[in-house]
Design a protein that fits this description.
Elements: E1 16-23, E2 26-32, E3 36-43, E4 56-62, H1 73-80
Antiparallel strand pairs: 1-2, 2-3, 3-4
Length: about 80
């Protein structure tokens, strides 16, 4: 197992995120907020002397908007917080 220190993609700092193995010697980074899920990847090893330290934005998925009637978002957060 190999460990590395990497900086997250710049537009993902104020979002929830997870790091995953993206296969083929790539590191995956998943960032999620209320309306979108973004997937980034970066190469972990040199291939023919080429390596990038930049995250590549692979895909954006729009999430459905959740509407709640009869309760505010603050009330829901309070009800479901641990």
């Amino acid at each position: 197992m190999k460990f590395s220190v990497v900086d997250p993609p710049p537009d993902s700092l104020n979002r929830q995120w997870a790091v995953a193995d993206a296969g083929e010697d790539r590191l995956g980074f998943i960032a999620i907020d209320q309306c979108t899920l973004d997937f980034y990847c970066k190469t972990l090893r040199n291939i023919d002397g080429l390596r990038t330290d930049e995250w590549c934005h692979e895909k954006r998925i729009s999430l459905p908007e959740i509407t709640v009637t009869g309760a505010s978002l603050a009330q829901l957060k309070a009800a479901f917080s641990c």
